[in-house]
Amino acid sequence: MNVYEEAKKVSIVTIILNVVLGVFKVIAGVLGHSTAMIADGMHTASDVVTTVMVIIGVKVSNKGADDKHPYGHERFEPVFGKLISLFLAFTGVMIGYEGIMALVKGEFTKPAPIALVAAVASIIVKEGMYWYTLRTAKKIKSVSMEADAWHHRTDAFSSIGTFIGILGASLGWTFLDPLTAVIVSIFIIKVGIDLFMQATNQLVDEAAPESVIQKIEELTYSIQGVKGIHDLKTRVAGNKIYADLEILVEKKASVEEGHHIATRVHDLLEKDIEELKHCMVHVEPY
Prior knowledge:
Keywords: Membrane, Transmembrane, Transmembrane helix, Transport. By secondary structure, this protein is mostly helical. The protein has 2 domains: about 5-200, Cation efflux protein transmembrane domain (Alpha-lytic protease prodomain-like, Up-down Bundle), CATH 1.20.1510.10; about 210-285, 2-Layer Sandwich (Alpha-Beta Plaits), CATH 3.30.70. About 70% of the residues lie in helices and about 10% in strands. Strands 1-2-3 form a 3-stranded mixed beta sheet, with helices on one face. α4 (about 115-140) packs antiparallel against α5 and α5 (about 145-170) packs antiparallel against α6 (about 175-200). The two termini are about 40 Å apart.
């Protein structure tokens, strides 16, 4: 599986859709006199920037090891994930600010029907983009692409709120339009913070998921000659996992026999666990 090509294909599709949808929503917001729809359109436009960052992040993180980076470049991917999450949170702050200013100034207008049409179109398209991007993000285990997927979903939720606000404003409750923008901004900021913390965990040697640890133990014990596991440590680095473990073998076994058992454990783990990039196996007497 070519991780970069998978990410690139999805990203190009979402960039094209975001450009078309973003322009349509901003125009609809201007023509329809809806501050919420204009904010929604700006949110969609911001997705283009984050998607470009995803392409760069995945490309860099999948470069092989070199003299300066002997363990590879996987950690660059969560770095880009953090940048995208910050951009997402900043977008939420700006949308909230515009909504608050409209409420404070009492700048309420009655939106035109075109704003409602744009909101419905956005909900359908952006939710589809969320699932399309998330499926690939899970497949290639990319935190930056997952952050981008959530950027699409927040846009869909934003459009749902915008639809409600515009509909209410059309019925005479004009304050609902900017109020909706504020409520949506809070949700966007929350998602940005959550994704920031997720990316941070991948940069501070967080342990692998329990399911992976259990699989390592099961595979290790399946090798004949392994009497036990003395110590097992794992760490997540971007979309890859590293493991260090000490296995117990019969104390009367020769150095060659112990080495052979350790090699079989090493090869089996790296073969059967796709995300395990490297494991270090140390032999201890039982």
